[in-house]
Structure to design on (505 residues):
């Protein structure tokens, strides 16, 4: 039996429960169908066959979940930081114990390759541990003095919050958003993406089995236009942590306006990797290839625009093209696969349309350029490199969210900076140069929330994560997440009997 066959057999064992009983919502500690009994199918992008029937939650289900989160809030917020810390570590332990199940189900539901998803659970557990350790100090503030006055600031959890997540790496992203909310003392209503809802169900189960009190974490499946919208409009939900497309962020901002919702947005990107002639070319090429072709290119931080100094443009793009052509596209549970099927036929259509757009715009296809017949006949697209492109093309400006890289030459540093910043997004940027002074100057002027110099995206959890321009509002990571999930209060104490104006005698 091949490794793929063994993995597939195990994945089918893990999936059997979902196939038999469907994916229920979790409200107030109970696994429940949608109030009106409706379901929708989640399909596997490998063979487009249904994996499970999912509860189709709508406004009534969100209302129940928001009420449960509201009811659970005072108890959870009052629990000591140390107790929250211990509980979140127990959730992390339980995630690690079910790492294989999480990885296999994630691969089957999203099409992401096991090569990357094998670590998804561990990364999710790390998110819980990181915020567990910070829970005891989440409420801490500052002491600010002036003559005759001592100000003491402190933080308190904002209340029940809504978390809305996308389909690309659902397990990791859900932990990334939910762990800090719980550590802060908030209760949660989670609306996972309709295209990949399975591991969100595992996650809430794991948390409750680890001892999380009922109603602290509620999960309601459904679509953006019904469950998602209702969550953003609900009066009892104080804030929305959202990860998804920029235009959905705009809609959520409008939907939340009537209830003055606090919002945190992690949105799309069209991130440049900028390679100067003095860079370590081989390492830069490996990093560029990794950042666009890992996770199927369905990655907000992917380096989807390759800006290369003219003198090395031909050599560099040939190197990237050779590497792209050697990348294995295949079944996500095959341990050698790098690129699995894209999430859904509609998304595949969008990516393939961009390949046509690129050709029509006059760019050259240096690698890939079309669909691949993969196992199961699902949504497989070849890793693609467009060369001879310019920054005005749609393939250089719009987020494709697939394994498609657009390479553009630049003349000098000024030109490189202008190209890098000439885009509506500003999530990440990657700079390759051996000139440290240039690196300082260039990163100062780059319009991006996160920049890596001579490196691919290597995440350090205490650092801020988020974008500028159309890529987001707010920062996660370190203490920044608590700024979002908590309210800051200032209390001013008089330390002298200062003179108080006597109005009216
Ligand atoms: P999407 O915006 O279509 O959907 C994201 C979530 O929002 C889903 O759960 C969806 O049901 C919900 N939603 C849709 N319309 C809604 C509405 N009107 N009200 C409330 N909720 C609504 O995004 P997607 O296609 O699932 O994910 C891909 C996008 O996510 C890409 O743009 C990618 O760059 C972005 N992303 C960003 C980050 C980041 O950290 N910046 C990380 C991962 C993905």
């Amino acid at each position: 039996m091949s490794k793929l066959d063994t993995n597939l057999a195990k994945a089918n064992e893990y999936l059997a429960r979902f196939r038999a009983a469907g994916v229920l919502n979790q409200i107030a500690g109970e696994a429940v169908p949608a109030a009106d009994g409706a379901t929708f199918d989640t399909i596997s992008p490998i063979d487009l066959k249904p994996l499970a029937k999912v509860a189709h939650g709508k406004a009534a289900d969100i209302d129940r979940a928001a009420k449960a989160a509201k009811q659970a809030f005072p108890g959870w917020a009052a629990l000591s930081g140390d107790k929250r810390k211990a509980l979140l570590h127990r959730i992390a332990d339980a995630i690690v114990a079910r790492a294989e199940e999480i990885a296999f189900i994630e691969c089957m539901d999203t099409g992401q390759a096991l090569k990357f998803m094998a670590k998804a659970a561990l990364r999710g557990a790390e998110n819980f541990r990181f915020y567990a350790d910070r829970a005891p100090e989440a409420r801490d503030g500052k002491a600010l003095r002036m003559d005759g006055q001592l100000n003491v600031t402190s933080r308190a959890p904002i209340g029940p919050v809504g978390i809305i997540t996308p389909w690309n790496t659902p397990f990791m992203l859900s932990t990334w958003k939910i762990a800090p909310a719980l550590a802060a003392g908030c209760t949660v209503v989670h609306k996972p993406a309709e295209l990949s809802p399975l591991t969100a169900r595992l996650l809430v189960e794991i948390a409750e089995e680890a001892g999380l009190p009922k109603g602290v974490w509620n999960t309601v499946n459904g679509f953006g236009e019904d469950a998602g919208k209702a969550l953003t409009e609900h009066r009892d939900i104080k804030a929305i942590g959202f990860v998804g497309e920029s235009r959905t962020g705009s809609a959520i901002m409008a939907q939340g306006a009537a209830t003055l919702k606090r919002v945190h947005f992690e949105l799309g990107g069209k991130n440049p990797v900028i390679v100067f002639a003095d860079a370590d070319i081989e390492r830069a090429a490996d990093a560029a290839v990794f950042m666009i072709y890992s996770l199927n290119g369905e990655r907000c931080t992917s380096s989807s625009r390759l800006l290369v100094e003219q003198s090395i443009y031909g050599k560099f793009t040939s190197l990237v093209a050779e590497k792209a052509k050697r990348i294995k596209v295949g079944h996500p549970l095959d341990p050698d696969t790098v690129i699995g099927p894209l999430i859904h036929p509609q998304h595949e259509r969008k990516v393939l349309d961009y390949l046509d757009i690129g050709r029509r715009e006059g760019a050259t296809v240096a690698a890939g350029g079309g669909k691949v017949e993969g196992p199961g006949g699902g949504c497989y697209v070849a890793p693609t490199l467009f060369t001879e492109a310019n920054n005005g093309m749609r393939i250089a400006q719009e987020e494709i969210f697939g394994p498609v890289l657009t390479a553009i030459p630049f003349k000098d540093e000024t030109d490189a900076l202008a190209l890098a910043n000439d885009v509506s997004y500003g999530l990440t940027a990657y700079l390759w140069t051996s000139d440290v002074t240039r690196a300082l100057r260039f990163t100062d002027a780059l319009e991006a929330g996160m920049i890596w110099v001579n490196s691919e995206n290597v995440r350090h959890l205490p650092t801020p994560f988020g974008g500028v321009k159309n890529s987001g509002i707010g920062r996660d990571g370190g203490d920044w997440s608590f700024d979002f999930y908590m309210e800051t209060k200032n209390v001013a104490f008089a330390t002298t009997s200062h003179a108080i104006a006597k109005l009216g005698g």
